[in-house]
Amino acid sequence: MKILRWGMALILTAALTGCGYNDFQRLDEQTSSAWSEVLNQYQRRADLVPNLVATVKGEANFEQETLTRVIEARAKASSIQLTPQMLEDPQAMQRFQAAQGQLGSALSRLLVVSEQYPTLKANQAFGDLRVQLEGTENRITVARNRYIQSVQEYNVLARSFPSNLTAMVFSYRPKAGFTVADEAAISAPPKVDFGAK
Questions:
Q1: What are the angstrom distances between the C-alpha of 86 and each of 23, 92, 97, 181?
Q2: What is the pLDDT of residues 94-112, one digit of tens each?
Q3: Domain count, the chain
Q4: Predicted local confidence at residue 22, as pLDDT
Q5: DSSP string for 126-189
Q6: Dihedral in degrees, nearest 10, Cα atoms 84, 46, 92, 153
């Protein structure tokens, strides 16, 4: 009887160590932490926008439409809050990504338009803000890559046997990752026509 109990205890222990429950906890925390860093970098970018806009407004003839787009895009991006608990909702992730993409596009347009204003380009404060913005964009890329990796690890665990059984029992669903806004457009080769005039 003792041997049967010991055998059952050993089988139960082996089954529990292979279930992946602790791995789910670790990877869920890792994913939440990586997501927090993504949000931190997006917030850093949003915090730079008011100073950038204020500096650009000093240029008398600067395009008001460009500034308005930046201000509106920042407001929209700041209004969409995506908590770690919402990461399993692909639609919420798409809305968040769209808003951040609009802000990124508006800021890119602002920097392109600013090239036409020599006094603005010579402004030290604008130059410093531009460097900070470029650095922040790089930090966003790094944070997004870390998040993508942590989601990949979590999702592989959620879909692999036998840990997928644990995922079903405890309702651990795969998490949404970042997607490309217009995948069809970037996968199409660019059209190059050297004969065009």
A1: 20, 7, 13, 19
A2: 888 889 999 999 998 888 8
A3: 1
A4: 87
A5: HHHHHHHHHHHHHHHHHHHHHHHHHHHHHHHHHHSTTHHHHHHHHT-PPPP----TTHHHHHSP
A6: -50
Tell the residue number behind the tokens 């010579």, with chain if given.
122
Q: What is the pLDDT of residue 18?
A: 61
24 CB-near residues (< 8 Å, 6+ apart): 154, 157, 158, 163, 166, 167, 170, 172
Q: Which of 104, 116, 43 is nearest to 70 (CA)?
A: 104
Q: Which residues of the chain have pLDDT under 70?
A: 7, 9-18, 60-61, 180-197
End-to-end CA distance of the chain: 92
Identity of the residue numbered 116: Q
CB 129 within 8 A of CB 51: yes
Residue 121 pLDDT: 76
Report yes or no on 71 lying in a domain. yes
Enclosing domain of residue 61: 22-177
Q: What is the pLDDT of residues 46-71, one digit of tens each?
A: 999 898 888 888 775 677 888 888 88
Residue with structure tokens 């644990």? 166
- CATH number of the CATH domain containing 55: 1.20.1440.20
